[in-house]
Amino acid sequence: MFSGITLSMCAMLGGADTGIQVIPFPAQAVTKPGTFAVTSETIIAFESGNADAEQTAHYLAETLRPATGFALPVRAADGPKEGTLFLGGCDEDDLGDEGYTLATTPKHAVIKAPGAAGLFYGAQTIRQLLPPDVFADSPRTGIKWTMPCVEIRDVPRFPWRGMLLDPARHFIEKGNVKAFIDLMALHKLNRLHMHLTDDQGWRVEIKKYPRLTEVGAWRKETLVGHAREEKKQYDGKRHGGFYSQDDVRELVAYAAERHVVIVPEIEMPGHAQAAVAAYPELGCTDEQLEVLTYWGVNENVFNVEETTIAFLQDVLAEVLDLFPSEFIHIGGDECPKKQWKESERVQTRMRDLGIDTEEELQSWFVRQMDAFLTEQGRRLIGWDEILEGGLAPGATVMSWRGVEGGIAAARAKHDVVMSPVTHTYFDYYQGNPEAEPLAIGGNLPLETVYDFEPIPADLTPAEAQHVLGAQAQLWTEYIRAWSHLEYMAFPRACALAEVVWSPREGKDFAAFKARLQRHLQRLDLLKVNYRDPRE
Ligand code: TNX
To answer: CB under 8 Å to 30, separation ≥6 — which residues?
Structure first.
């Protein structure tokens, strides 16, 4: 480890040889001579009257406490004094809501940021500058809690730094969602997209329609093995669960304290079987369906009656009360048109509405939701199929079948989140399938994630402005256990964090892997069951 050597991000390709072993790597970082030591005498000071700094000061004191054993006092102060770790505001507009500066000298460490999130990210960087043992959950003795002296000026590359969790296929306990939010915060990820409804389960309590969870949250059994196997086998075990509205409020607040916004997804018009099983009048056939017990694209979709649109808007109204997120995800993917083509009611309705094709009908469906959400001051986001038949005026596109949908949307001046299967499907294999636990398929090693460039080369700078960022997906058809989810998520999420946070110039996989060695020690202490990239 050097000290006294000044290097910039561009020159050093990601800090492998410096004391700055931080993931995601900061936008600008230099090391200076010396170290700053956190001792039992250190004071965590916040700028008087700055509530954001006070909150993060407490967060920092709490996160440092278990491993160091220090109960560091948190106090208001006018400025940094010797022996303090100081947090305060600044008016550097170009740092935005999420940027910060961090200056450490042998005397003190100072985080400054114009916004609350920036202060919080400065605290995350401090955690990573300290020895990895700081992530232990019980006191470690004989460790010098020093960090290198640095000057860091850090801003994220993209505002949308997302991860998708899928509690619909396999329910995810509230405590695990919280643990995941903590891990996202550590990696400066800020959007947790929760896929709350699908054919196999409805996972959020809706007061007006209790059967959505009474019936829709439970399935009688689950497919064992891969869906493409000819001989289907089921486990015979009831599976389910849901988040009550109180659970949701608790999760949303927990996430907000860590500067993570939970983006809820209510799927429509496809992936709707759990809802149709609960309320058959929402479907296209007279059949009483059950909550689906296997995986794949499914024909049972919502009908297009006025009452069904009203039902879904009622659902969204409750969702809006629970989730303050500006963006509300309405799904929109994989909606087979078979039942719409075969249903007389749907065909009559198309004639009444003056709609010629089923693709346009889907576009009409999404526009009903777009108008509703826009009126409520929110923004609709959906999977790239919402481009088919014409994009709703306010819609943002999540581009999953590649980046083409994203390119088309950006050219049409719509915002885009890049989430292509090629680089961001963390349910895909990350090594030789023979040696890996069963997964849905694909091949997505760590390096491919790291090499992802969210801005396609053929976009003009103005079009590129519409790319809000990128997101990785943890679909859970083949992920039942939490330890398995961690295995699929890490360290690929560490690579994604660098894709969406760090500057494009200076990205270097070898340097990232070198920094990852230290980072894996942190994940070990956090008891994360990551896949070891050294194996
Ligand atoms: C496609 S991505 C889906 C999901 C599956 C996923 C499995 C998307 C919008 N739809 O329903 O879980 O593939 O990789």
So the answer is: 6, 7, 8, 150, 151, 152
